[in-house]
Design goal:
Layout lengths: L1 H16 L1 H15 L7 H19 L4 H23 L12 E2 L2 E2 L2 H18 L3 E3 L4 H17 L7 H11 L4 E6 L2 E6 H21 L19 H23 L8 H12 L1
Antiparallel strand pairs: 1-2, 3-4, 4-5
Length: about 270
């Protein structure tokens, strides 16, 4: 019974952390079903995202430091979107005033919403890192994963080599989190896969409501290929590494702890 209660509590904290993505999906559905006046759908989505971001900071749901992280992800995501649409990986066929090189500016918020989720969940679940790899390993790895999204169009795709490298680098790394006073732990690599899987599900919902369009969805919607999940897992890794590195630099109660410290804490919780 307690396990079920903890699962429900964990799910509730996750749901609260997903507030920004939920608003984006709801807006995609609303603007798909009910055309809004004066502006195009893409422009309305941008306005909704801006208002939502303003409200989250204003209400205290997000801190100013978290806003900086989210803005960084908006820029990173928008740059990737511009490149990928140019290469024909997907498209935004609808019209809009606020588009940059054919990409609506609201698209960056879809990446920013991932960062928002990570920041929210990190704070709500009191995340700590166990055996976090050195800074000089984490940063080049994150950069290599991100730039491979660009370079594989001109060179070989090394995503699977990078995936193996991630497993090796984080083989002994864990993430610990707290649910209603009890701490749990999970291998960091497993958390990457789980988050990537749920984002892949969200991607199917987003494309169904016309957030963007893959070439095979031009005439009729179809399920996003499962292979795309590998891209999302890698993107989640980049997101997590950036958020973790920035939080460690800021020292917001996320200092990596060693296994002995964790064992002592866990034993104290179980008494």
């Amino acid at each position: 019974m307690r396990a079920f209660q903890q699962l429900v509590r964990f799910g509730w904290e996750q749901a609260l952390s997903c507030l920004f993505p939920v608003v984006i999906f709801a807006s995609l559905a609303l603007t798909k079903i009910i055309p809004l006046p004066l502006l195009s759908r893409y422009d309305w989505l941008l306005i909704i995202c801006l208002l939502m971001q303003w409200w989250m900071v204003r209400s205290g749901l997000e801190t100013r430091d978290e806003l900086k992280v989210i803005t960084l992800f908006h820029i990173i995501g928008l740059a990737l979107e511009i490149f990928k649409t140019h290469m024909g990986s997907w498209s935004y066929p609808e019209e809009g005033y606020f588009k940059l090189f054919g990409v609506p500016l609201y698209s960056g918020f879809m990446y920013a919403s991932v960062a928002s989720y990570l920041c929210q969940a990190w704070r709500r679940l009191k995340v700590e890192l166990v055996r976090w790899p050195p800074f000089l390993v984490v940063v080049p790895l994150a950069a290599a994963i991100y730039f491979n999204f660009f370079t594989h169009h001109y060179w070989i795709d090394i995503r699977w080599y990078l995936a193996v490298l991630v497993i090796l680098v984080f083989l002994k790394s864990w993430v610990t989190y707290e649910v209603y006073g009890t701490r749990y732990r999970m291998p960091i690599a497993l958390s990457f896969v789980l988050i990537g899987f749920f984002i892949w599900i969200a991607e199917n919902i987003a494309t169904f409501f016309g957030a963007w369009e893959y070439p095979n969805q031009t005439h009729v919607w179809s399920l996003v290929h499962l292979g795309k999940m590998s891209s999302w897992v890698l993107l989640v890794i980049v997101s997590f590494l950036i958020v973790a590195t920035l939080k460690l630099v800021k020292g917001n109660n996320t200092t990596p702890i060693n296994p002995e410290q964790f064992t002592i804490q866990l034993n104290e919780k179980m008494r």
